[in-house]
Amino acid sequence: MIEVLISVFVLGVVVVGLFGFITLVLKSTHDGQRRIVATALANEKMETIRNLSYDRVGTFGGIPSGPIVQSEDVTRNASTYTVNTDIRYIDDTFDGTSPMDSINSDYKQARVEVSWDNNLSNRSVLLITQIVPNGLEGGSSLGTLVFSALNAAGEGVAGATFRISNTTVSPVVDFTTSTNNEGIITIPGLLPSVGTYEISVTKNGYTTEQTYDQTGSFIPNVDHSHVSSVLGNTTNKTFYIDTVSSLTIKTENDVSAALGNIAYRITGSKKIGLDGTGADVYLLDDTTTTDNAGVSVYNDMTWDTYAFSVNGSVTGYDIKETSNVLPLSIDPGTDTTLTVTLVPHSPLSLHVTVLTSAGVFVPNASVQVMGPGYNQTQLSSVNGQVFFTPIPVAADYTITVTAGGFGQVVQPVTVDAGERVQVNLTQV
User: What is the mean pLDDT of residues 24-49?
Assistant: First the structure.
């Protein structure tokens, strides 16, 4: 019986292994057949390009423009292939004038990539060819765009998706490509046009930047205006993108119980233009409310510094304390939770945050507030904050802050509503 069991086990291992080998061979054979078809499709597209006159070699909506479709799906033998064609001008160093070349569209390079899905992996075939005109300088003196995608540290972002479009020129432009390893794209051959080239840059997991249309109620600033192309000139454009961050806002009372449906406003510092009244328009300026559980979540935050506020006269609450220093600083690729402790609103109040010179909370600091008929002292919380309410009258007050290891700070403040003050201590 033992010998039979061993024999069955060995036979099973052999059969399973043989079955797996046969399956792999069949998959590889099928993949080889699809590669042959893909190569044939790529050669067909290349032959189409070679049969065009030099001036017509280009893609529909591309730079240069032409009759070739940038991307199309082709079905052969019940399998679907994606044919992507990229044609662009090349500024060759052979003429001895690059990169300061008034005619930087020396010849064209065509890239045809045919890809297909496979059980093993995503496969593709790539063919590249140069299309050269008669003469050394084949192009004309058109405009050139040099685009850079940088992260928050000023380093190039490789593989970012860059799109440029323009419906005011003929033929129209709608061209998409990717930044190189330095985060740069150079595009010669732009038709002249003033302020009409629309640009956007994206990358999976990164923030997005773009140019904006000007309307009667919005005027984009210089950094976010559409781009111009001038004959014989180079236009430089830089956008900053970095990994997205998340922010969770929680509103609660002073015994840490959730307070839901609290209206608040959060505003970043990055500006994109002006509205119809001349007021600044920010990349993020959101007035909304927390949910029933006192929570609000932002999953696509740009690194920035954000102001946060609660209107006491509207909500009936004032901010007693926050878990983070306000304004709130968010770095790229971080997850931040801002917990906001609220207490009943008072028309006159004073919130004091005690920080080191490096912006770190100072707990257990003695904070004294003196003014007309008022003299109160509190110790700062673990988050370096104290909240004086109610303040008896609108007037000038004096704040005196003392903490071990730090020099004393005396600071005046005028209280005529809900005032917020930061006091920075210097170590001694």
Answer: 76
Residue 230 lies in a domain: yes
C-beta of residue 276 within 8 angstroms of C-beta of residue 300: no
Tens digit of each residue's pLDDT (9 = 90 or more) over 328-387 = 999 999 999 999 999 999 999 999 999 999 999 999 999 999 999 999 999 999 999 999
How confident is the model at residue 62, as a pLDDT?
86
Tell whether 314 is covered by a domain.
Answer: yes
Considering only CA atoms, which of 384, 387, 395, 385 is closest in space to residue 417? 395
Position 204 pLDDT exceeds 80: yes
Side-chain half-sphere CA neighbours of 127 within 13 A: 18
Would residue 1 count as lying in a domain? no
Question: Mean pLDDT, the chain, as a whole number?
Answer: 88
Among the listed residues 163, 253, 176, 154, the one whose alpha carbon sits nearest the alpha carbon of residue 209: 163
> Which residue range forms the structural domain that includes residue 317?
244-345
Asked whether residue 26 is domain-assigned, the answer is: no
Burial class (CB in 10 A: 0-12, 13-18, 19+), 127: middle
Going from the C-alpha of 177 to that of each of 6, 62, 170, the distances in angstroms are 60, 10, 20
Among the three residues 99, 131, 163, which one is the final residue of a domain in this structure? 131
What's the one-letter identity of residue 376? Q
pTM: 0.79
Which of 345, 369, 397 finishes a domain?
345
122 and 154 inside one domain:
no
Sign of CA dihedral 325, 328, 331, 334: positive
Judged by phi (left if over 0) then psi (alpha if -120 to 50, else beta), residue 205 lies in left
Instruction: Write the CATH number for 408.
Output: 2.60.40.1120
**How far is CA 82 from each of CA 27, 166, 224, rounded to the nearest angstrom?**
20, 25, 34
Tell me the torsion sign for CA atoms 379, 381, 384, 389: negative
Domain count, the chain: 4
Q: What residue type is 82 in one-letter code? A: T
pLDDT value for 136:
46
